[in-house]
Amino acid sequence: MSDDAFPLGADAAGIGSRILRLRTQKGATQTHLAGDAFTRAYVSSIEGGKRTPSPRASAYFAGRLGVTLEDLCYRYEPGRRQALRDAIAEARLALSRGDVAQASETYSDVISAADLHQDPEFGAAGRCGLGFLARHQGDPDRALDAFAQAEALLTGQPLSSRLQAVMGRMGALFASGAINDALALAEDHLREARRTGQTAAEFALRAATVLPHVERGDLDQAAASADAALEIASHVRDPEILAQGYYHINRVLAAQARYDEAEQVLTRAVALYEHLRLRTEVGMCHFARGFLSARREDLAEAEDRLRLAASILAETRALPRLVNARAELAEVLRRLGRTAEAAELVDDCRALALEYRDPEQAAELDRIDARIAADVGDDTAAERLFRAALDRYEHVGAVLEVALTCRLFGDRLIKWGRTQEAAEIYRRGLTGLERP
Length: 436
What we know:
This protein is mainly α. Helices cover 78% and strands 0% of the residues. It has helices at 15-26, 30-34, 40-47, 55-65, 69-73, 80-96, 100-116, 120-136, 140-153, 159-175, 179-196, 199-208, 210-215, 219-232, 239-255, 259-276, 279-295, 299-315, 319-335, 339-353, 359-375, 379-396, 399-415, 419-433. Helix 9 (140-153) packs antiparallel against helix 10, helix 12 packs parallel to helix 15 (239-255) and helix 15 (239-255) packs parallel to helix 17 (279-295). The longest helix has 18 residues, at 179-196. The mean pLDDT is 94.
């Protein structure tokens, strides 16, 4: 903590009374506290509320009292705020390894303590924690509310202080199917990051815009955002921001068939997440690697990677991510000709997904089921499922997925001898990809 500025949310006006209380508890005199740097009269004026010491002077007095500057700046008992910081870090690990109950209890306790002591930084941190917990369980609406509360507590603070809440809000919007809103939020704050020279925030936000651009079918813009983020990655010191950014960036690299580059950024992300001991995030990266292998037509490797991802995500009880991994595995098994196994996996995914709502994930399951139905000759079910997938993808604005689904459905219609209808479906897909 810098001696040149008070920490976020510091109660500078109350420093004098805390100095008086701590000095009295330790049986020290004002002369002793003043030391060689200040006068007894100056200490007296501070303790009497007539003057507020500077951050540097406050740090000096903290040292004389055997506490930290942080202990003088907040209403907690000495050491309590550090204990809460440690608890927040442990709750993050607990959530990532699937101990939802422990994480929830800790975040709630942090919020209670922070609100009682009028500490906006930790109040926001606790609420962000509950937001991450809601995302882990597949509840983007509850997550969005928690992240919005966190950001409101930090109103007026630099973007670096609000970044976790902003990124969480964007992720919750995306998960709920509000792709355009998520992109608009990221781009709005990206302008602020560039204007104020906050490199870590700029990297995070540039990387975060990649997936919405891909979903909207704008691969050129997605690639430009990814490349711009990678150019400044070396200046980012926060390992979790880097790992999350690399995870996002791999998506457009995969979409553009830049497989080696995608593999490289995922390798970096895995190494960072393993260092941070974030188990769910490691599982997500293995899922992304399985996705890459499938696009490369290495289906055996894809199956191995996706089974590893599913195993980790089942262990950590990250239901939405688990469904993603199992759905992709089902598609790989279908391509390997193991139709019955694929169908069984899709049924399992649908059962798990009943516990939460993800419209785009539901569309993906419909599309896989449609292809399975077509493979086994159930043309009626295949058509119904393709149309359901299209409607869902269009509803959330996932333009690239609409185009892919239209191509698959159109190809199937041609096989059924329905050429005119196929042409109409192809046009439907191409229309969404047209840029204004």
